[in-house]
Amino acid sequence: ENYITDDIGISTWKEQAFLSHGALLAKSCQAAMELAKHDAEVQDMAFQYGKHMAMSHKINSDLQPFIKEKTGDSMTFNLNSAPVVLHQEFLGRDLWIKQIGEAQGKGRLDYAKLRETIKAGKGVTSAIDLCRYHGNKALEALESFPPSEARSALENIVFAVTRFS
């Protein structure tokens, strides 16, 4: 098998993540405000919240194989996930291809070995930073809403996906 991943940069990753995850949530938040007869500005803030919260959530889920305490050696991960894409960007394509080669044994990819290689690089910490960046953007969008139980609940969703021990 050929494990060379698509050469996607983090900007392409973000675009794909938004289209597959963020757009739906962002538009749902926006529509809810529209139904409640709020003006365009409030609808836009809701859209921003949904978009950034979804990005933060997606990155958090991409990070799980790299930050979970107990990760089974056989546990695979997506080579187009945020930490891997960032790792690949820091390394450059040639070094990444070399690392993939080094993690291949008996015709299959040794995910445990590749995971350790990636954890030793900058991709994981950068993904955590990116997760927090989107979380902060989501919280900023909520600042235009008056304090309420609903707002607190939305803030808590962000806190949950941006908390890393």
Protein described:
It is built from seven helices and two strands; from the N terminus they run H-H-H-H-E-E-H-H-H. It is elongated and about 60 Å long. The two termini are 36 Å apart. With 165 residues, it is mainly α.
How many strand segments? Answer: 2
Overall 3D geometry?
elongated
- Helix content, binned percent: over 70%
What class do helices, strands and sheet pairing give? mainly alpha
Low-pLDDT stretches: none
Q: What's the tally of helices? A: 7
Biggest pleated sheet: 2 strands, antiparallel
Distance between the termini: 36 Å
Order of helices and strands: HHHHEEHHH
Strand order of the largest sheet: 1-2
Radius of gyration: 18 Å
Taken as a percent bin, the fraction of beta residues is under 5%
Average pLDDT metric: 89
InterPro entries: Isoprenoid_synthase_dom_sf
Protein name: Decaprenyl-diphosphate synthase subunit 2
Organism: Galeopterus variegatus (Malayan flying lemur)
Outline the fold blueprint:
Layout: H1 10-35, H2 40-67, H3 82-91, H4 93-102, E1 104-105, E2 108-109, H5 111-120, H6 123-142, H7 149-162
Antiparallel strand pairs: 1-2
Helix pairs in contact: 1-2, 2-6, 2-7, 3-4, 3-6, 6-7
InterPro entries: Isoprenoid_synthase_dom_sf (IPR008949)
Organism: Galeopterus variegatus
Protein name: Decaprenyl-diphosphate synthase subunit 2
